[in-house]
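Subject — a protein and its fold
Encoding — discrete vocabulary of local shapes:
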Amino acid sequence: METTKAYVITGPTSGIGYATALELAKYGTVILVGRNRDKLDQVQKTIEERGQKALSVVCDISDIKKVRSAAEQIVALKLPITGMLNNAGIMSSKAAKNAQGWDMTFATNHLGAFAFTEALSPHLPDGANVVFIASAIEDPERKPAKIMGMRGGRYISIEASTRGEWKEGGSKMAGIDAYATSKQCILAATMALARESKRLHFNAVEPGITRGTSLGGESTNSVVRFIFGHLMAIIPPFSHYSSTPEKSARVIARVLMDETGQTGIYFDEKGNPMQGSELSRDPKFQDRVVAETRGLLQKV
């Protein structure tokens, strides 16, 4: 059994996830969870060449059955996991379905992350930190997103979300409603889990408008990626929220390794507490999202 600390990270092969995996490897063993074996091997090799430790677990986070299988593999490693980062996320401009027949963006960003956390949480030691990567796009009043014509989360119900159905009056940009709603749900769930758990600490991080991320590569909305990844990082007022994968990684690592017991906090790109949308802050909405999510996942 290892005596060093261990950290689990999903989506570690590019962008913020890759930078955070390298940052966390300075402090303990990193368990890399991703869908592409070759890319995982490359990240693991990079970490090991630096004299640090990493292990890889192949898993498509959008597939709930594979998520549970990956969690079992991680538990079997018997490592002292003090931090878990749900980073994997996509912003797809094309509607697609996961293995369960659900909307791919919602399945990856919310359902998969939630199921992974539920499967691993009972096996984490007391005081472990669980962090979710959120997005301020979920907030209809967030200035940069509003200027872009985004309308925030469009939640109807978990069932409707799995069908790719969102509240009317949303964004005209393909894939944005799915992304914003999935991020609103995972943020709300973070806060509900923080209130529910007496043992673990649950927090969320908004990494800012970050250059150098692909948010899922070829399926990403390329127009949004260009605007957010390049133009907005340098144009006021958007540049106020800009960051880089390396800066984001340091903020995320700090939250993930925190030992003060802070929980139920939403951090911005500089590591300061921020507010989510009015809806995401509503305890009734938070509890509803968790209850509906659990109800759906019990059927899988």
Summary: The first strand starts at residue 6 and ends at 10. The mean pLDDT is 91. Residues 176-196 form the longest helix (21 residues).
